Amino acid sequence: MSRLIVISNRVQAPQPGTGGGAQGGLAVALNAALAEEDGIWFGWSGDTSDNRELRFQTYGGVTSAVMDLSEQDVEEYYDGYANRTLWPLFHYRLDLTEFERDFQGGYERVNRVFGERIGPHIEPDDLVWVHDYHMIPLGWVLRQQGITNRIGFFLHIPWPPRRLLTALPDHRRLVEALFAYDVVGFQNEEWLDSFFNYVKEEMDGTVDGNNVTVGGRTICAISCPIGIEAKDFIAGAAGPVARAAQLNQLESAVGRSLIVGVDRLDYSKGLPERFAGYERFLQNHPDRRALVYLLQIAPPSRTAVQTYRDIRNNLEQMSGRINGAYADTDWVPIRYVNKGYPREVLAGIYRAARIGLVTPLRDGMNLVAKEYVAAQDPRDPGVLILSRFAGAAQQLSVGALMINPYSAEDIADGIDKALRMPRAERIDRWQAMIENVVEEDVIWWRKRFIDALSAETQ
Ligand code: ADQ
């Protein structure tokens, strides 16, 4: 049997002392496959030093191997090219994209070092699966070392339209690196189509079904939407920890409808626009103000990057201003908290919420939307309000209230409609969504990708 090798920026293998219960779906699905097939998960340790040795560890049945990066590496590769160039650009934020030659140099250097360290540990039958925008050139580096294994790449974020991508200096070099892989996976058809379009227009390539050919090299490009660990999440949402969190929320809501948002603090998630949309609802419906409150959970991320500090300041000001303008002695319109919660507590909070407000300006998929659906009480489910620009829109528009996240009016109308929605309609809409969330869960996603990667080249 072939082993699975996973390579990603951060390794999410189980760690001693963390119990493992707090892991998200991706970690759960990949660790299960790694444990079954005796694989290895490679990546950055998260620490900085000048030591370039891989450190192996086996824990909870999973072997991982991590390497430190130097401070310069982190600055140029992680905070730089990955999070100040590719992330904003791929999320349609050309205005926030920084183009620095040093960033690109650091990105390629770190990928080369990773590839050179990992290469010797790959055995002839291994399937190699590389993840996300931090690691695009990694497959190419492995090929340089003579590795002829099947190597796949999955992009967790959107693939931008051609016209946006061509704003990146050396864009073609980046895309060419993808042709070192055998299979390239995207979150949905829209990102896949943008990739096809780039290849046809910029590289003189041809597309035949899922086969993409450029200069005699053919790869397989697929749409492969990621899901959540649906069954576990559903069970967790009905369990005691979630129940306590749910009751806690309901008690503090005293008869009001809870609207919940849960996002990493990131400008792609449309948080200022969401606050503005909620404020518009409060303005438009003075009589219903005190009947709702918004709980926004947003743990800080990438705090070394200025744009992330800016968004945090902006949201603090906005929530302060909105609370100042509308609060009463027994009610504040927005509760804004900046910390992380265990998954079962989150599940309970989702279940307590009449509305799940998921309004990214762009998102590769958005798993919070799926978690919100999975956590609902089937007899009295809440309403998902979902941005048409989330990757998840393709699967969840069957039941979600779809909105344009740039429009405060649209968000306000969505909230109004959701609050008025009769139970029968809520159940119908929820049923359409839960079917998809359960069917196309994270195990389905893993299998779909691995099947494509294991298939013989046509
Ligand atoms: P993210 O941008 O991080 O992921 P998302 O898919 O929503 O976005 O996943 C966030 C995860 O973090 C969810 O599982 C959520 O429950 C968890 N989380 C958020 N806030 C939390 C908190 N306060 N406490 C605990 N957990 C919290 C990227 C892409 C997405 C894509 C995923 C997976 O940007 O588009 O869906 O990868 O491919």
UniProtKB/TrEMBL annotation:
It comes from the Bacteria. Pfam families: Glyco_transf_20. InterPro entries: Glyco_trans_20 (IPR001830). SUPFAM superfamilies: UDP-Glycosyltransferase/glycogen phosphorylase (SSF53756). Gene3D superfamilies: Glycogen Phosphorylase B. Belongs to the glycosyltransferase 20 family. PANTHER family: BCDNA.GH08860 (PTHR10788:SF106), TREHALOSE-6-PHOSPHATE SYNTHASE (PTHR10788). This is Alpha,alpha-trehalose-phosphate synthase. It comes from Sphingomonas hankookensis.
